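pipeline stage [seq->struct] | target=Probable disease resistance At5g63020 | organism=Olea europaea subsp. europaea | residues=1320
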Amino acid sequence: MDKLFEFVVPKLPDIVACLCPNFKKKVTLQRKIRLLKIRKDEIDKKIQNAGKNLRREVEVWRNDVENIKNEFEKWEQVEKSSRFYHVFKRQELAEQIQRMIEEVTELVDQSKFPGGPFLEVDESIDRLLLIPRPNGQAFEQNFNDIWTSLMDANVVSIGIYGMGGVGKTTLARHVHDKLKESLRHVYWVTVSQEFSIYKLQTDIARELNLTIARENDEGKRAAKLFQEFKKMERFVLILDDVWERIDAEKIGIPSKMDGSKLVITSRSEDVCHRMCCKNIIKVNTLSEQEALDLFLKTLDCGEPSLEVKEICKKMVNRCGGLPLAIITLAGSMRGVIDIHEWKDASEGLKESCLGRADMKDEVLPILLYSYHRLRDTRLKSCFLNCSLYPEDFRISREELIEHFMSEELMERRLSWEAEFNQGHAILNQLVRACLLETDSDGRLKMHDLIREMAIGITKDNPPRYMVKAGLHLEELPEEQEWTEDLDKVSLMCNSIEEISPGTSPKCPSLSTLILRENPLRLIADCFFTQMCGLRTLDLSKTEIESLPNSISDLVKLNALVLTGCFQLVSVPSLEKLKVLKHLSLKDTSIEEVPQGMESLTNLKSLSLLCSTLEMIPTGTLHRLTHLQQLEWPDHIDVPIEEVETLKQLAVLNCRLNSKHDLNRLINARRIDKPLCFYNIRVGTRGIYTRIELESQLKILCFTEDVRMESSLDTYENKLPRDIKDLSFSGSGLSGCLLDEFPTLSSARNLKECTIEREDKIECIMRLEEEQQSSGVPFQSLERLELEWLPNFIGLFKWEAVAAPLPPGTFSCLRRLSIYKCGKIKKVFPQSLVHNFHNLEHLAVEVCAQMEEIIEDDKNEGADITLPRLKRFYLKHLPQVKSICKGKMICDSITSISLSGNGSGLSGCLFPTLSSARNLKKCTIKREDKIECIMRLEEEQQSSGVPFQSLERLKLEWLPNFIGLFKWEAVAAPLPPGTFSCLRRLSIYKCGKIKKVFPQSLVHNFHNLEHLAVEVCAQMEEIIEDDKNEGADITLPRLKRFSLDDLPQVKSICKGKMICDSIENISLRGSGLSVCLLDKFPTLSSARNLEECTVVREDKIECIMRLEEEQQSSGVPFQSLERLELEWLPNFIGLFKWEAVAAPLPPGTFSCLRRLSIYECGKIKKVFPQSLVHDFHNLEHFAVHNCAQMEEIIEDDKNEGADIALPRLKRFCLTNMPQVKSICKGKMICYSIQYIRLGGIKNIKEFPLYLPLLDDGQLSHPPSLPTIRIDREEKEWWESLKWPHHNAKNVLQRLVEFELDVECITDSDASESGEEEENQC
């Protein structure tokens, strides 16, 4: 029995498992149910005692717990009623137990509630409202864009994307919170990185308070969710952190239901597109100021010291505007007080921002996940290669793609074009994944932290990189850093001048070495000897003169890049480099091709664009049969026979000798594959010019001395079928362009055409029935430039019987420019206007015989419509009689410029402008007949709003111009909105204008920022008092106000002129009288005024009055930095004291840096000693030619106190015969850099304060290099008295005696002083 017991007991679990196969699972389920009940009891007890509102997820959890408990109890009852099951029943039971175990486990995990079970605020306020709203223009713009999309019934889905940590979730949360204020059904679900349909359905159901836990079938779960959503009239569902496409229907989300909106956030633009988001918004990094504001706000330490703030700026810059990094970094510095700790932290960030523990834990994982989501290893390799460039380096797409090609990082394709397209596809994927950024020029860069992450990946994982680019290194890294497992090394953009003998890193695995953009002159021959695996060597833009011979032994070298090595004259033999595929000698100084070039039979890319190259030996190119990309300079002749043999050629940048050679090349490429890109000049041998081959160019240019083949010749003038840009410059083109090149009638890709300096050409195409082509000439042409064509009569030449243009001709033309075409009389007829309906830019300039821009060939005087015309320029057309007979309707017009002795403009400007909503800029010059911009009389008033969007109006040299408006018998008011956007109004040399606009129309000009009226002989009043009320004039946004040479002007306006935004005032002969502040009382509170110039004003006496009863409550001239006063015969001083003088309001002139007074006849003092403190920021102080000046700084207190001007740098006094002293006390100027004196012989003492050295001896001010004095006043200088007996000796060595100091103007003194300052 014992033996039987010993045998059975160990086997008992297996026996039980056999008889009751679900026993173990049942026990597990019971144990987990007990644990779940305990957790629920604990939470119920908290709820009972707390009396607070529960979070929504807690309520959902409690319901789910009750449901699973009920289900378990029912299961137990069924299980007890029958002990034995059929095999299929047992299987079903096992699946049911397993599902319940998983659900219970999930509910136990959810019971932790990290944020606690209760809301801190009322249930009606969502928890996300606790997140502070970010500041910044970009945030507000993005928020408004999303909100506009949400309010748009046509937009059902919105995508928000950007790099990790940029603030997508924060932005979406604030949108969520705003929606909650007015919409009941707003739901937020975070999509996990390990996405599954089942889990997302569960999460959405929990938000909806819907129970679907019992249902396993995903389709049925989706149906329940769909029905729940359909019960709602309107809802918004926000899915945060989406990593891949989600099929809304499979989840159960209605995609096209009225009132439904789906918002997703993702790091990938691709995901947004694949989910068919109607509007897609990118969240960019913060600007420098916004980043600093966020850092300081997170730091939360009040206003930091200047030193700490400067460190903060440096730390913020290392974060690259990434909010997550800024918040994390600022949080780690919160509470740090010691300046040494701040400096230490800043120094640590120089090497690595992500190296800090907090950044490594919170920021790095988020960035890394974007990298790991690149599932293609080639895509990862291309991304990591982008980190070889310096921080913030802008890289052209073409350069990166060429780099990928030379490194062989991409999949091999059959053609160069296919590889080029693949490169663009890879870069686009990286941009859409927010791992690369695109600037406004289309160049790419890596965000600083993304680059740092990439460098970190390559430091710790193979293939290993060493990247020390842009670090200002003067020497190579230490020997121990050149490890044997290095794969790529980038030392570009440093200051390395030589690689000294004996330097030979042992790097057998090194495949890429980049030394470009270093002032490198010498490389030791042994440097490359232990780099036997090197495949890419980039020495471009270095100062190397000759390459070491050891390069000849780099037999695995795939790419040798020497672009921009202007000093390079010697390249060793390349004969052994059999696998070399890419060789660039562009912009080097070699005179002959390297030895062994003919052996490079695997070469795919060759650039020989160098001005010093004397020849390419015959037969060299013939052997390079794999060439796909080829460039040679214009001064080199290459036999066309050699080019014809290059069957794989895809990119060509060169000059061909003749049209005959071009025809042969075109014929050869029609047999083989056509060229992908080309920039070909056709003409005689000329001087070398550097021609860059940019991406996707298809350019053909005919230059001097090209013989055009006539119809009698064997060869037809051929053009590539896919040509995009065609130009002729002195090529001998004659007659009609389309006759010379009939293939243009079917050139569907031609976008640009330029014809210049062609003496014989007459027209672009003939219009006669028998010669009409069956094709559509110029159907895709967008730009046509015609310049210096003396015999050009027009675009079209009509023969005896004219034929209409083929439909579509010129239909894409956007820009037409005609310049110096001597015989043209019209641009095109009214009957062909519809062919030019896409024209955006029309310019006709310096055409001596032009009579009419658009000819009325039908004699109907019909209106002309150019619906897309934006810019219209006419200049120097002396014979032109009209623009067109009818009205010219161009509602898209943004800029008009009419200039020069007749443009056909007379009387009033175009009536069509009454509805031109987009017109931003209008310039009218040298038009003798124009009188006004618009008439004001009721019967002629337009129903539109003229000039409603005009921002800039410039009127110059208009001898008969009487004003903006011409009033007839009965004047009518301006339509509301006329000139309402005008920001800049400039009137110059308009002889008959007497007023700018009346006071009654001032409100129409409320957005005016710049008003300039100059040299108008009959101008009487700037703003006319047409109501005779003397009312004040308010121009709230006026920043710059300039009046110059208006001899008849009596006043600016009758009332006061209020312009609180004023920044710059210039008054020159404007009729200003007595006191500036009286005329412009607004200056007493003008916080933005920085510059004020008053010149040749005969009546002005002072800048401001000082008397108590007239003192303003504001602070006049509080921001003024520059004050220029010149040629003011009655000017008595800055201030005019009345019977009772009042002090200056504190802050007056406190920012003044430059004060210049010249030819002011009655001024006797500049300012009193009692007001010196108001001028403590003065840097430049100059007084010249003031005949009655007695004392520069008056001693009004009779104390003889010292005068301190601590920031004064330049001090100039000349030609003041009555001046007796500069000031009574000493003049203390520690910052003085320049002194100029002359014509002040009555001054007996020079009061400059001289500092004492440690030994008690006097010293001249350390910043003062020279004192300049008129040579004729040497005796006066010698006679001066000094406050200290040794002062004269100390200053004597600084004195330079010059000629005619009195004649030097203030501007000269300023320039000399600035030059002197720069030398210091």
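stage status: PASS
auto-comment: The radius of gyration is 41 Å. Residues 726 and 753 are 5 Å apart (CA to CA).
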